[in-house]
Amino acid sequence: MESLAKKYNLRHIRISSYNSRANGIVEQSHRSVRESIVRSIPGDKLHWPEVVPSVFWAQRIAIHSATGMSPFYMAHGIHPLLPMDITEVTWLV
After folding, report:
1. What's the number of domains the chain is made of?
2. By its UniProt entry, which InterPro entries does this protein fall under (predicted)?
């Protein structure tokens, strides 16, 4: 870990595992995922596995205010191609 932190000029912080206040940024992200799943469930809470892929996809393509980019863009270097974009793009055919 230390070599990666040094290579990418990152600050590596060690915190205790079950201290939610220390893990605030991660906990906030988990809270938004949980809320999105709960809001997407059609009635019965047993259907949550059906909505998880859509919730995570939405999180991956959403532009984050801290970076100005989506996680998808940061990982792949291109913007995701959405179904509504396919009708507008003619060079794919």
Report:
1. 1
2. Integrase_cat-core, RNaseH-like_sf, RNaseH_sf
